[in-house]
Fold HD Cas3-type domain-containing protein.
Amino acid sequence: MVIRLEDCIARPPEGGRTFPLSDHLFTVGQRIGAPEGEWAERLAFLAGLLHDAGKARLSWQQYIRSRDPDKGSVPHAVYGAVLFAYCADYLSRRLPLSADAASHYQWSVMRWVRDIMDHHGPLKDIDETSLPWEGHFFAEDLGEMDLAGLQRFLQTHFTELDDLEFSVQHVKTWQKGFRRTWRTWYRTHVRRHAKRETAADRCVRTSTARLIEADRFDAALLEKREMSRSEALKALDQLNEYVTHRAVSASPAQTDVSTLRQTYQDVAVNQFKKHASERFFTLSLPTGMGKTMTALKVALTACVELDKQRIVYVAPYLSILSQATAELRRATGLEVHQHHSLTWSEHREWDEKDILLLESWQAPIVTTTFNQLFRGLFPSRAQETLRLAGLRRAVLLLDEPQIIREAAWFPFLKMLEAAACQLDMQVLFISATMPPLNAISCRPTPLVEEHVVYAPRYDVLHHGTPCAEADVADRVVNRVTKDRQVAVVLNTVEDSSRVYREVKNRLALDECEAEVIHLNGAMTPLHKHVQIQRVKKRLADDSDNRLLVVSTQMIEAGVDISFRAVYRALSIFPSLVQAAGRINRHGQGDRGELIVFPFLRNGEKDTRRSVYRERLFREETDKSLDLQKRWAEHEFIREVDRYYARVFQRMQAEASLKRVSDAARGNWTELAQLTPFEEDGQRVSVFVPWGESFLHTDEALLSEEEKAVQKGIQRLMEQFAIQSVEAIYERYLDSAWMTQLTFVERKQFMGLMQQFIVPIHYKTAAGVVANLRDDPTIKRITSLEEYSDESGLAHHIGNEEDGILW
C-alpha cells in the first residue's frame, strides 16, 4: 500500500492550510538550483527535489498525520539520498561533460548525497570504502513509496530520466554496482582535485547551507530579513548624532580623547571608501579610542554604498557582547539579535520561527561569539550551517581576533577567506593588538595607517623579581591607599583566590578601608554579571571610596572599566596590552601605571605556563619585556607588531592546515572539532542556585543591564511555574516534565539553567557536588553554603591540575 505523491504532505496542516510534499520539494529545488542551465545548477535542483523524498513513505505519512509521540520518529533522509544518487549516477552518463567537469560532477554528487543524508543531524565524513547509507537503507522500504508518481514528478524537469526504471529491484541491483562507482569517483577526485592551495574553497559548506536554509525556511513559511539601503542610511544618520552627542557630553578631561575618536572615525570611513572593492580590512586603534563605533560606521557605510545586507559583530566574551549589543541598539536604532549560549533567557518571548531566524542570523545587526562563528565555518551539525547563510553579503566585524588559539588561527583565516569570496562578504579585524594576517592571500587594507597620536594615558613598568601571594597583596594594598582604584589580574582562578584572601587579610591588619571585589570564572554567569556591575558602579562613584579588584583575565577585553593602576601577573604580550587598556581609558589626570611582575604560587610554581602553553609566545614576550624596564604607552603598543612578527615567523602552519586538506578529501569531522579556544581538561557542569536575593531586588537599585537580566530570568521562571531558583534543578530532574517540553520550551529552559551553571574540573567537583556519579549531565552543588557570595567556587579550586579556569 502506498499514498499517491500528490496526496503526501510535508508537515501537518496549520490554520486550515495544507502543505503538499511535492510543493515543498519543488520550492527547495528552486531555491538552491535551477532546472535549466549549467550542470551544477541542475544537480542542485535535483538535490532539492529529492532531499525529502523519503517523506512519501507510507510509514512516514502515517507518523506525521498521527503525531503520536509514543511512536517515535520515522527516518526519511536516507531514502532521499539513495534516490538522488540513483538519478545523479544515471544523469552522469547522459550529460555532455568534459573529463574535468565529470570529475567535479562526481564529487558534487558525493557531497550532495552526504548533505541529504545529514540534513537533520550531524555532518559526517565521506568514506571511500562504503556508501553513506550502508546499514541504514533497505531497498524493500521503497515499496512504501509511490515510485511511479515520483518518476513523473522528476520527468517534468529532467527529460533525461524518462528511461530510468523506478522500482525496488532496479535500485537494489544498481546499489551493488554503485559501490565500485563510489570508490572510483572518490579516488578520481582526490588524485586530481584535492589540492592544498584550493582545499579551503572546497571546505566551506555553502551548498549545505543553501539546502538547510531553503528546507527550514520553506517549512516554517519564513522570509529572509535583510537590511535595506534606506534602513542603513537612517541608521548611519542616527549613529552620527549618537557619536556627536557623546562627544558634546564628555567631561572637559575627556575632550581630547573624544575629538580623536571622531577624527579616526572619519579617517577610517574615507579609507574604506577608497578601497571599497577589497574584502579584508584592519582597524588597529588603542583601547579606549572607540573601535566599536568606528567599525560600525564603516560597516553601515558598506551597507549604504555596496548594498550589504547585514552586519555581524563577533566578540570573544559574553561580557563584551552584552555591552556591545546594547550600544549598537542605542547607536543605530536597528533591530539587533544577540546569539550565544544564554540567548534563550533574554527578556522576550520565543517561538520556533524566532529561533530559526536567530540561528540563521536574520536581522540587520547580529552580535555573536567566536564559538558561534566557528560553528558556522566549521559546523558539526546541519543546523549550524544556517550561520553561513546569514553571512551572505554581510559585513563581518571581528573584535579582538587575537584571542583565537594558535592551533585554530591558520585554518580560521583560510576558511574565512574562502567564505568571504563565496558569500560576497567583507571582513573587518578590530584590535589594539592586531595579529599577523599573512595566511590571507591578499594583504588586508588598514583603515588607519599611521600610528595614532594622543597624550599618553599610562606607563608600563616591568618588575623582574617574582612575587608570591603575600607580596602581591602588600603591593596592591599600599597602592590603593594612594590611587583609590586599583586592580590585580592573575592567570588562574586559584591564583586569584589565593591573592584575594591575602588582600582581605592585609586590609584587616592595616585597618585600611577599601572595598575588594573578586572576579573569576568559577562563578555562575549571573554572579559574574552582578559582580561586574558592582565594579562599574564603584568606579563611577566620585567619592573618595577605595576599590581594589582581584580578577582573572576575564576583565582584559571589552569590559568598559578604568583603573588608575593595574598589577598584571606575567602572561603574554597581547594580554598585557589588553590589561593596559583598563587603565585611564579616557586620559584623565596623571598617567596611570601597568605593573607587570612574574607570579609564583607559594613562591614556587610558575602558573603562567599552565594557561599560556605555547612556549614561543612566552619566549617572545620575555624578549620584548627585557628590552627596557619602563615603557610609555606608545612604545608598548608598537612593540606588539614586532612581537607578532617574531611569533608568526617561528610558527609552523603546516600541521594546523592539514585539517583543511583532510576535510577537502571528505574527512569533515577533522574540521568540525575545531574550536577558537583551547579546552583545558574534563569539566563538570554544576548547578548552583545562587541569585534568589538578586531576583527580588528593587528595580530602582539596579542598572539597566541588571534589570534586563532580572526580568529575563523572572519571566522564564513564571512561564515554567517555577517558584524559586532551587526549583529550577528539580524541574531538570523531572524527566517526564522535560519530555513534554516543545523544542522552543526546551531551549528556553536550558537557557534559564545556564545562568546558574559553573563548569569546574572533575576533581574539584568531587568535593562540592551531591550527585557526581548519577545520570544527570548537569550536577548539583551539595549545598549553597559551598558557594561564596564573594568568590563563587574559586576557594575550592586547587585540587585539580593547575587550577585553570577563567
Summary: The chain has a mean pLDDT of 89. The longest strand covers residues 310-315. Residues 305 and 549 are 45 Å apart (CA to CA). The radius of gyration is 29 Å.
